[in-house]
Amino acid sequence: MSIPLTSGHRPDSNAAQSDSWVQKVAHDVGLIARSSTADRVADVLRRRIIEGDLAPRTHLPEEQLIVALRVSRNTLREAFRMLSHEGLLVHELHRGVFVRELDEADLRDLYRLRLMIECGVLRSLVDVAPGDLEALHTDLSAAVSASGRGDWIGVGTANMQFHHDLVALARSPRTDQVTQRLLAEVRLAFHAAASPERLHRKYVDRNRELLDLLEGREFERAAARLEDYLRDSLAELLDALRGEVA
User: Fold this and answer.
1) Contact indicator for 109, 87 with CB cutoff of 8 Å
2) Which of helix, strand or coil describes residue 91?
3) Which of 203, 166, 164, 202 is nearest to 181 (CA)?
4) pLDDT tens digits for 129-176?
5) Are 241 and 108 in contact (CB under 8 A)?
6) Beta strand spans in 53-194 (E)
7) Do residues 245 and 194 lie in contact, with contact meaning Cβ atoms separated by under 8 Å?
8) Residues 176 and 168 sit within 8 Å (Cβ to Cβ)
9) pLDDT in tens, 10-29
10) Residue 105 CB: number of other CB atoms within 10 A?
């Protein structure tokens, strides 16, 4: 099940913020069918990660989530196992389940896969109808609106959706699914940046450039620009992870 993204907010470690994301999870329960499954619970938690509400090292309290999601302990634990397999969560003995923290090797591997998938999709395109790009226009507008409000976490969420919808141009449900999980891990890396504005501001314009190239059917040129874009993004995230960016 793919859940559309909406603007999120920066989490922190205090109790109020913890309550905030738990409340969002409780709200998301409306997206889970009556015949709730671990897959759907995992979708809800993945959504909170992609939207930036769950930062690395955030503890996921079983009791609160069982109540918020209205699911059994076994269902929740199965969802935890699924997300752990995806590299989003980690179980620590006698301490519980936490959102995973990425290292340099993780980032390099994630971006290697992004280059293969996203640039490969652009190079595979033969044509696009105007309607095919509507979602990308919506995502770009959301990013522009969020930047105007100074909501850089919201800009990051819109950027994640832009890249997800870019891959969707391939019309491959399997590629869409892989990309959704991949971008959830990428979103965890964004929390390493001390300045979300510095991280995200330039990519609004770069997304606009990509969209212009797609509208002009310049698919190979768009793929080349996206390669540069992703390599720059990786370099900035690695610097942030090392504490080299203010």
Assistant:
1) no
2) strand
3) 164
4) 879 999 999 999 999 999 999 898 889 899 999 999 999 999 999 999
5) no
6) 59-60, 89-92, 96-99
7) yes
8) yes
9) 444 455 555 677 777 766 66
10) 8
